[in-house]
Write a structure and sequence with these properties.
Distance between the termini of chain A: 29 Å
Mean pLDDT of chain B: 91
Strand content of chain B: 15-25%
Helix content of chain A: 55-70%
Mean pLDDT of chain A: 85
Strand content of chain A: 5-15%
Shape of chain B: elongated
Number of strands of chain A: 3
Low-confidence stretches of chain A: none
Strand order of the largest sheet of chain A: 2-3
Order of helices and strands of chain A: HHEEEHHHH
Strand order of the largest sheet of chain B: 6-5-14-16
Shape of chain A: elongated
Oligomer: heterodimer
Radius of gyration of chain A: 21 Å
Structural class of chain B: alpha/beta
């Protein structure tokens, strides 16, 4: 389902706000056709918003940065998981401390998921390009 | 026409308060509009501004400023309460530092000292209230012991006497042996504590080999026993009823009564009856005509003379004479044990009454006191609330009010202290000579048989003996007696003043629940009695300010936030906004300092937005408010129509909230609009109109920005009076104070759901793009390509 004609017209007429408030350089209003590949996506109402990655970031640098970040986060996560599987720690530490470590582990897991999602997007983008 | 770069609250606040006062802006307007009047809950003259005062007065000030702007003639009367016992204690402590006591000075000199102290230190709290920005009319400032209010107290007392609603009687009252005064029932704090239940043998008079076992929590009072009672149907005691008991130690022979009041389940079912020191026993004593022996003196030490006066003899009287009640307890238990009267001791947890001022354990004590016959006053007071002539908000408090009023007891209004309204009753020195007891240092008391002459001024000649020497009753009135008259005494009663005609009944009373009975109920009773009309239409009961964990603030817990400290640190406006934003109806406020810092950021945001607006002004604005010319324009841009529509909704919601005492909604709806709609979005959008990226009339856009800013300032003024006045006065020269401008009115024609829907969609899209950029780590300045499908 594509964005309504009316909404697209509205966006077109208010484009200066997009430019100034979201740093949009160029806007395209697609009335039909395929979904753009290799773009970050969001949906507002019935309108789909695409930001092509190549326009936003330096793909190679971002790939390197994300990969490094994933490694770092995985290291942190495994350190905590080790702690949480250590009975000595579990028996001796206060309940709040254990709880805090568990929360941290959850946060790292979530972060890895998001980072991987970004990596997948870049992969998809490169697949579209080649 | 420029605002300073950063907002300096200290400078601005001190400047405006004195200007407002000098210009008479706090006095009621002289127009013909409707009135809105309030009396401040008078803080104790000994007081220092705490969080409770700050919340209470901020809420009142919001109402006053709102109503004043909304066209009402507003009168808000400030003042202080003489706070009998509290003030006397403060001055006594100061005397003690100089090695002096109250008794050494004598009554007259002592009272002079209190007045001196009052003059010197008593208005500290009023200065602190001024720092808070309260828009009270200081020309109406009153003190519960000033001349006019003293006259009102005397008039009220005499009228109650003439109407048969006052009496003097020897009754058991709550006595504080430290403050040496009677206390009203609600001035006694009951606390559970660990004690004992002592089981004592009370032998029969004619056959000491037989005995009843009585159980008591206060063995020392057995010296004042004048009966023992059991339940008439208690099988254990059928053979004993009607016999006599010989009390251990006092050796007094007393009757054994059968009374259904006795609880068979408590202790052994046999109850010692001490009418002189127990409220329930006093009632039984009245029913059976038992002697009431007052075994203690005013310090709660055993008073040997009370036994001697009954013709009782025995070396025990000497032995126990002058012993403190707690020491006497130990000695009596020891003697009972030694003589074989003590059967057993059990641990027992029970409630004990303490003085609300000094925490001393209360002694039920037999003294002549003055009472108000309260039922005839309570009935109409309950009706007024039941019939909706007074609204209590939140409504749940009405139930507490009714529960208390239905069980109300006669009000003991005499206090045995010096600082207060001395009771206008006189005794002829000649006729009453036998009833006047000198107690040293020119002090005296009167027996229960003394016959008072109640009058507006001291009588000249005794109608009985022609004597010309009079003694005024030494007691003073309960502090709450004078504050009960506050809503009309402050307006000039008993004179028929213009103020009374113009401003009574008052509109709203804002207060804490802790004085619902002490004060609110008394004002309702007194108002109906003397003015024949309710003292106020609405009573808004606000919550307590607690610490961020929800605990009560107290010095011992070191969790007290001092209002003056945070006002200095974050600004009074930020502090007031915090209190209002957290004042949800019926919910206690959990106050953390970072909340105040958060609202300081809001004040700064408003300041910076105003700076932006004013830097873009091309024309000079003068003393007139900018009005609504641009706002009323027919062909505004989409963004303009959106903000105008949001403004109209915000005004309507804000008005509805404040009129219904939803102070938190009032603050929050204005916060959202100002920060998240006007500052975050509209100002940013308007930049494109100012530089004509969006085609249109840029002059009108500037005009519109000022008009919107002024509407916001007007809307926020009741909560944050200082910063709004400062900005208001910088926008235009020689302007009339913002506090005298009209409060914004919502225009139905401005509501534009279509514009709101469209801009909200646009905002959603912009937010989505911003989020994607952040997620993908796109450099903030980089322009991106967007495709919409």
């Amino acid at each position: 389902v594509n964005g309504s004609e009316e909404d697209l017209t509205l966006l077109r007429s208010q484009e200066p706000y997009l430019r100034s408030l979201a740093r949009v350089g160029e806007a395209e209003y697609l009335t039909s056709g395929d979904r753009p590949k290799g773009a970050a996506t969001a949906v507002v109402g019935s309108t789909e918003v695409y930001l092509p990655l190549g326009e936003m970031i330096n793909i190679d640098e971002e790939w390197a940065r994300l990969t490094k970040e994933v490694h770092k986060t995985k290291d942190e996560l495994s350190r905590i998981q080790k702690k949480l599987s250590n009975n000595d720690f579990l028996n001796r530490a206060k309940e709040e401390v254990v709880q805090k470590e568990r929360e941290k582990a959850g946060q790292y897991e979530e972060k890895i998921r998001t980072l991987n999602l970004s990596l997948e997007r870049i992969q998809e983008f490169q697949a579209g390009r080649s | 026409m420029q605002l300073a770069k950063a907002y300096s609250h200290a400078e601005v606040e001190s400047k405006w308060y004195s200007k407002w006062m000098e210009s008479g802006a706090f006095q009621p307007a002289k127009n013909a509009g409707p009135y809105f009047s309030m009396v401040i809950p008078p803080p104790n003259v000994t007081g220092s501004l705490h969080m409770g005062h700050a919340l209470n007065n901020t809420l009142q000030d919001i109402l006053c400023r709102y109503k004043r702007m909304d066209g009402y003639r507003v009168l808000w009367i400030p003042g202080t309460d003489h706070a009998g016992i509290a003030t006397q204690n403060v001055v006594e402590r100061r005397l003690a530092e100089q090695g002096l006591t109250r008794a050494q000075l004598g009554r007259k000199k002592f009272i002079e000292r209190v007045w001196e102290w009052k003059k010197e230190a008593g208005s500290a709290i009023l200065h602190q209230l001024k720092a808070l920005g309260v828009s009270c009319d200081w020309q109406h400032e009153r003190f519960t012991m000033d001349e006019g209010l003293s006259l009102a107290v005397r008039e009220a007392f005499v009228r109650l006497w003439e109407d048969g609603l006052l009496y003097r009687a020897e009754r058991l009252i709550n006595w504080c042996p430290r403050c040496k005064t009677a206390l009203a029932d609600i001035e006694v704090v009951h606390e559970e504590s660990d004690g004992n239940l002592w089981y004592i043998r009370y032998p029969l008079a004619d056959d000491p080999s037989q005995a009843l076992i009585v159980a008591t929590t206060r063995p020392e009072t057995m010296l004042g026993d004048t009966a023992v009672a059991v339940h008439p149907e208690d099988k254990r005691y059928q053979g004993f009823i009607g016999k006599k008991i010989r009390l251990p130690i006092a050796d007094r022979v007393v009757p054994l009564l059968a009374d259904p009041y006795v609880d068979r389940e408590f202790g052994t079912g046999a109850l010692k009856i001490t009418p002189g020191h127990d409220f329930n026993d006093f009632e039984i004593g009245e029913r059976y005509g038992l002697d009431k022996i007052s075994i203690f003196d005013a310090d709660a030490r055993i008073d040997g003379s009370s036994f001697a006066a009954r013709g009782e003899k025995g070396e025990w009287i000497q032995r126990y004479n002058s012993k403190d009640r707690f020491e006497a307890r130990k000695l009596i238990v020891a003697e009972l044990k030694e003589k074989g009267y003590l059967e057993k001791v059990e641990a027992h947890r029970h409630a004990i009454g303490h003085c609300y001022r000094c925490q001393t354990v209360i002694e039920p004590y037999l003294t002549p006191q003055w009472f108000v016959d309260i039922k005839p006053l309570a009935e109409p007071a309950m009706r007024a609330v039941r019939e909706g002539r007074i609204r209590i908000i939140p409504e749940g408090w009405s139930n507490s009010y009714f529960a208390w009023m239905e069980n109300i007891k006669d009000w003991c209004i005499s206090r045995q202290i010096w600082w207060g309204h001395q009771i206008p009753a006189w005794y002829c020195k000649k006729c009453e000579a036998a009833n006047i007891i000198e107690t040293g240092a020119g002090d005296y008391r009167l027996t229960k048989d003394a016959k008072p002459i109640v009058a507006r001024r001291a009588p000249t000649e005794c109608p009985r003996c022609g004597g010309k020497e009079w003694l005024q009753d030494p007691d003073v009135l309960d502090t709450w007696f004078s504050s009960g008259l506050w809503p009309f005494s402050t307006l000039g009663w008993p004179e028929k003043t213009d103020d009374l005609k113009s401003f009574y009944p008052t509109s709203t009373l804002v207060t804490g629940f802790d004085i619902l009975f002490f004060w609110v109920a008394r004002m309702i009773m007194m108002g109906l009695k003397f003015m024949d009309a309710v003292p106020f239409r609405d009573v808004y009961i606000h919550a307590l300010v607690r610490d961020e964990q929800g605990q009560k603030m107290s010095k011992s817990k070191r969790n007290v936030i001092d209002p003056l400290d945070v006002m200095e640190k974050y600004g009074t406006d930020a502090f007031r906004f915090t209190l209002a934003a957290l004042a949800a109806m019926g919910r206690d406020i959990k106050l953390a300092e970072d909340r105040i810092a958060g609202y300081q950021a809001f004040v700064n945001k408003l300041w910076n937005a105003s700076r932006f607006v004013m830097m873009n002004l091309s024309e000079d604005f003068n003393s007139q408010p900018s009005g609504k010319a641009a706002l009323a324009d027919a062909d505004l841009s989409l963004a303009d129509r959106w903000i105008r529509s949001r403004l109209a909704s915000t005004i309507a919601e804000a008005r509805k909230a404040v009129e219904n005492y939803r102070f938190n909604d009032f603050a929050n709806v204005l916060y959202q609009f100002t920060w998240h709609e006007f500052c975050d979005w509209y100002i940013e959008m308007s930049k494109l109109q100012l530089n004509e990226t969006i085609p249109g009339d840029s002059r009108r856009s500037r005009r519109l920005l000022v008009e919107l800013l002024e509407q916001i300032l007007l809307l926020l003024h009741p909560i944050i009076p200082f910063v709004t006045e400062e900005i208001w006065q910088v926008i235009g020269k020689d302007r009339k104070s913002i506090m005298l401008q009209a409060y914004p009115a919502s225009e139905a024609a401005w509501l534009d759901p279509e514009a709101e829907r469209r801009i909200e969609f646009l905002m959603e899209v912009i937010r989505a793009i911003r989020n994607l950029r952040t997620e993908m780590n796109c450099p903030p300045g980089k322009e991106v390509k967007v495709m919409f499908l």
